[in-house]
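Deliverable D2.4 — example input (structure tokens):
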């Protein structure tokens, strides 16, 4: 089993992004995803900066993947996407089907991200035929669903043609919208957001009237209100999951990579505090199931 760092989903200042990846280069993560996936207005790092950073990380021995935007809304964003896909030496995670089209036309292998709806073996076969080599399971699916999917892939004869990656740590992107909820929460229009996402390095928490964490607003993303944490579920992934993804929240996420790695066999379980793991157990996502 390998462990990956997903792309930073929040808007961090450039210096913090660079400091995170300098530390990530020395971490125990096997795979590092990077790139802007949420909002094209987040330009602390430009496309050439992401590609340059990816090449530096690759030189440190990490497997590096550039992640593309999940919601393409303008021709300029399509141009940026094409620049990502035109590089010949860095693998791409497609988070939108337009990226799949670009990459398949170039006969370039790619990762299908969790933002792409993919809920049956026939769809996976189509992506495999187009060049998919790794599938990141949608965040709301369970272990039982994954077992059924992979059994279906066995029947189609494609199970050995791609890897499976599961999001094991972080706030889960549950929905995407053309509207920006962070700007709206500050009574700003999306076109006049003044890059207010910079004020919320882990998104903006929303609570119910009873004070329960319900959602985290992150630009166009509506995320889970609680952090998912599958560290104690790793033994149940054996034989099914090739890569477990940790979504960066801060430099502390790198310590969680260490904790995940030493608990692969379940010998070093961790307290979950307020974290959740319901989706993996086919329950409401905010549920916490104790091992």
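Example output (designed residues):
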């Amino acid at each position: 089993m390998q462990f990956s760092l997903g792309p930073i989903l929040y808007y961090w200042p450039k210096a913090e992004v660079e400091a995170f990846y300098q530390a990530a280069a020395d971490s125990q993560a096997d795979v590092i995803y990077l790139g802007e996936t949420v909002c094209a207005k987040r330009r602390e790092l430009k496309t050439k900066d992401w590609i340059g950073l990816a090449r530096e990380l690759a030189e440190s021995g990490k497997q590096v993947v550039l992640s593309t935007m999940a919601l393409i809304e303008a021709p300029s964003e399509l141009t940026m996407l094409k620049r990502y896909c035109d590089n010949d030496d860095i693998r791409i995670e497609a988070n939108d089907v337009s990226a799949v089209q670009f990459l398949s036309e170039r006969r370039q292998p790619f990762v299908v991200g969790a933002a792409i709806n993919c809920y049956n073996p026939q769809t996976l076969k189509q992506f495999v035929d187009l060049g998919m080599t790794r599938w990141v399971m949608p965040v709301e699916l369970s272990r039982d669903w994954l077992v059924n999917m992979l059994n279906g892939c066995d029947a189609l004869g494609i199970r050995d043609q791609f890897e499976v990656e599961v999001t094991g740590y972080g706030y889960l992107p549950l929905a995407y919208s053309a509207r920006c909820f962070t700007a709206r929460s500050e009574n700003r229009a999306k076109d006049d957001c003044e890059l207010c996402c910079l004020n919320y390095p882990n998104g903006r928490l929303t609570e119910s009237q009873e004070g329960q964490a319900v959602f985290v607003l992150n630009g166009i993303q509506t995320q889970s209100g609680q952090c998912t944490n599958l560290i104690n579920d790793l033994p149940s992934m054996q034989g099914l999951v090739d890569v477990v993804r940790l979504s960066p929240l801060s430099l502390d996420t790198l310590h969680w990579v260490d904790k995940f790695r030493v608990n692969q066999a379940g010998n070093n379980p961790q307290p979950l505090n307020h974290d959740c793991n319901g989706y993996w157990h086919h329950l409401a996502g905010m549920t916490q199931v104790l091992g």
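The mean pLDDT is 96.
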